[in-house]
Design goal:
A: six-stranded mixed β-sheet, four-stranded antiparallel β-sheet, B: mainly beta, 12 strands
């Protein structure tokens, strides 16, 4: 079936602008995760949604970052007043069922100029 | 807090060489352990996993054994191919559905 999809695949924005990144998880997956991969660094956890539970926001780096998820479907990650250090590949993953693994989307490459 | 440490790269090997990429973890309790692979220009893919001590994950000729006594999950392959060139990430998660804690990644380059 279809995997995790993300849009846009690339986004170039000016410093100070707001951006929205979208993630479509695998159908039926109850868990959805956002991670960030900055150049030369490892992957950092940002936020985790599980069903109707309150999201785990412990990885969000500042209050400029927020995310929403409607039910068990699409999620959007919003970055307000972007800074150059926000430049990274933003990865979404979904998981569910009896497995422990997470399935990753192709990512959105964000460049803040 | 929980963390994952893996050997730094880049690692350069000749085709058919033996591969080991070391990975150690710190965690409370018994996390699930994973190796993910990112081929050039592609997204992250799960390579293998182990969910309890002494489990061995295997896929595509790669293996890793969950060693509780040494808190390790080293990745091995007996004979690498050029097509194995990629970045490999070790990761842990606390229980089913937990967020992944990643190591820094190890870049592997296999030469013909």
């Amino acid at each position: 079936g279809a995997g995790v999809s993300q849009s846009p695949s690339n986004k170039v924005t000016e410093k100070g602008k707001d951006v929205e990144l979208r993630c479509d998880p695998i159908s039926g997956h109850t868990a959805l995760y956002w991670y960030r991969q900055r150049l030369g660094q490892g992957l950092e956890f940002l936020i985790y949604f599980q069903g109707n539970s309150a999201p785990d926001k412990s990885g969000l780096p500042s209050d400029r970052f927020s995310a929403e998820r409607t039910g068990e479907s699409v999620s959007t990650l919003t970055i307000q007043r972007t800074q150059q250090e926000d430049s990274a590949v933003y990865l979404c993953a979904s998981g569910g069922g009896t497995g422990y693994e997470q399935y990753f989307g192709p990512g959105t490459r964000l460049t803040v100029t | 807090g929980n963390s994952v440490t893996q050997m730094e790269g880049p690692v350069t090997l000749s085709e058919e060489a033996f591969l080991t990429i070391n990975c150690t973890y710190t965690a409370t309790g018994y996390p699930s352990l994973f190796w993910y692979v990112q081929y050039p220009g592609e997204g992250l893919q799960l390579l293998l996993k182990a969910t309890k001590a002494d489990d061995k994950g295997s896929n595509k000729g790669f293996e890793a054994t969950y060693r509780k006594e040494t808190t390790s999950f080293h990745l091995e392959k007996g004979s690498v191919q050029v097509s194995d060139s990629a970045v490999y990430f070790c990761a842990s998660s606390k229980g089913q559905g937990g967020k992944l804690i990643f190591g820094q990644g190890t870049e592997l380059s296999v030469k013909p």
